[in-house]
Amino acid sequence: MTGRAAVGSLWVVGLLGSLHCIGMCGGFVLALDRPSRAPVRRLATFATFLTGKACTYVLLGALAGLAGGAVVHSGAFAAARSALAVAAGVLMVWAGLQIAGVVRELPVASWFGPTSPYGHAVRAVSEARGPAAPFAMGALTGLLPCPLVYAFLAAALASGGLLASMGVMSILGVTSMPALLLVGLLGASVSPQVRRRFVRVAGVGVVLLGVVTLLRGLGLDVLHAAFGHFHGA
Q1: Contact in structure between 29 and 46 (CB atoms under 8 Å)
Q2: Are 206 and 148 in contact (CB under 8 A)?
Q3: How do the domains of the chain map onto residue ranges?
Q4: What is this structure's pTM?
Q5: DSSP 96-126
Q6: Structural element, H or E, at residue 205
Q7: Please, which residues have CB within 8 angstroms of residue 57's CB and are 6 or more apart in sequence?
Q8: How many other C-beta atoms lie within 10 A of the C-beta of residue 59?
Q9: What's the chain's average pLDDT?
Q10: Residue stretches of the chain with pLDDT short of 50
């Protein structure tokens, strides 16, 4: 996945998908909040948590970049890149449907339950006290199963380079910050009904962009064809 249009679509998908983060990761943010703290300290705690989450994404991007680089040197990059673009599109569509509440969460979510090693790690970090605890909690949160993360990883693999792959995942890290920061600052002041409406609209948007990404992977860049034809008319 390359080009300004592709990068732009990743930013849009990340921002729309961040509304899903409210449901999946918002509880972690609220658990870290202490309303009695000074506003600066509250903001610092949220920022540390979000930085830890973003760092996990960038680390996953680095691993994907190393794998993608190996594919580049194998001489099969062109075919692999198209396949990964298709995979990214399919996963974006799946993520959008999940965000909109049309399909259920992936079955691997049970691997991250309270009795799993992941659950024990989260419990240990939640009981820790110190400036590094929010960062560690954010880093663990970045490992939660999410089709949107998988879609970005497929796009990162398709980038074929270490820095490019890390850049793709950093987009996910940055775009997931605003929604979760608002959750921390506003708490439960936004009604569940309003949240669900926004999330459903965001899900539809992610589905549409996933379809575009899928078609691009198949060699059918419908946006370029449509707007290129309009521009030439």
Answers
A1: yes
A2: yes
A3: 3-232
A4: 0.78
A5: HHHHTTSSPPPGGGGGGSTTSHHHHHHHHHH
A6: helix 192-217
A7: 142, 149, 152, 169, 170, 172, 173
A8: 15
A9: 77
A10: 1-2, 222-233
